[in-house]
Amino acid sequence: MKFSIVIPCYKVEKYLSECVDSILSQTFTDYEIILVDDGSPDRVPEICDEYAKKDNRIRVIHQKNGGLSRARNAGIAEAMGDYVVCIDSDDYLLHKDVLQAITNKLSTNPDVVLYGYKKLYESDGAWGEPVVPHAVIGSVKVVIDHQLLNDTFTATAWTKAVRTSLLHNYKIEFTPGLISEDNDWYMRILCYAKSIVCLEEPCVAYRQRPGSISHAAKINSLTDNLWILETWPSRFDEIGIDNDLKSTLMSALAYFYANLLIVFTSYPRSVSNEYRYRLKSLLYLFDYAKTPRANIEKRFIKILGFELSIILLTLLSKIKKHQ
Questions:
Q1: To 5 degrees, how large is the angle CA 98–CA 168–CA 255?
Q2: DSSP label at residue 69
Q3: Rounded distance between C-alpha atoms, residue 146 and residue 134, angstroms
Q4: How far apart are CA 22 and CA 94, in angstroms?
């Protein structure tokens, strides 16, 4: 079996059928679908069971609500395909040849296949511009360096097909309860993967809907991302990756850091002051900056200092929101 497609399901009865149907309509059929009902209180459990009765490629896991990470982990643990594909249950595959297009990239037996997406704005049905990885041939370091330099790097789990044995052998799981769990998960993969290939086309419709996890402003988003940035430099050493790859992955952390500075501006000063010192102590990550945003923020801070740069970023964020 080529693919195990893992779909965590929670409070998505409105979207689940569109997601599953987009897979069942694929021209490539060598796959299994693992629906993980994460204790959903709506009709999701029934919908999952109905699909399982209709198609023997569909398996259902019912569990108590434990969050997205535990749901994904449960599905991946049961995966029997050569590659794991994670899809969020409110998203869907863009066309019927997505799995075939990914399969066409597997001739060299890569550990990871990267592919793109398009944002679908639920409020008005508008589509964003395609976001796709640039195809480049080379080592993991070469591929990630190229993505960072060309601003196409993304850690999202649903833009990757990952060799199942890599996940199982190295016990690579999502950390339960962690916000930005994809960032942490992808860092683990990049430490152990030997090869990556890129599919230069959007494959996933990424639904933007108010109230989703990715749009909920929580203090955990700040503290968890700080933990990722603070702990990974030493974790690279513990794993024992070579210095060249470590330098590239430090650049990925600089990308995360630049994004976190923007998130930081969304909190009132009464909340953010507690974490200001920790955020400022990570400025050294900009020594590895490669993405446009990271380099722009690096220049701001070099010229204006940290505090004035945060004020400027806050103003720019407010202007962008009102455009």
A1: 65
A2: H
A3: 8
A4: 8
CA–CA gap between residue 16 and residue 6 (Å, rounded): 13
Residue 111 phi, psi (nearest 5): -80, -30
Q: What are phi and psi of 25, to 5 degrees?
A: -90, 5
Confidence at 215, pLDDT banded by 50, 70, 90: very low
- Which CA distances in Å does 318 have to 66, 91, 184, 263, 298? 35, 28, 29, 12, 20
> Tokens 């330098």 map to which residue?
247
SS (H, E, C) 113-126: EEEEEEEEECCCCE
User: What are the pLDDT digits (tens) for 221-235?
Assistant: 899 999 999 999 999
Q: Using CA atoms, how far apart are residues 165 and 2, in angstroms rounded to an integer?
A: 12
Instruction: Write down the H helix ranges in the chain.
Output: 16-24, 44-54, 68-77, 98-103, 140-149, 164-169, 181-192, 219-239, 243-264, 269-272, 276-280, 292-304, 306-321
Q: Are strands 196-208 and 92-93 parallel, antiparallel or unpaired?
A: antiparallel
Find the radius of gyration of the CA atoms of the chain.
Answer: 20
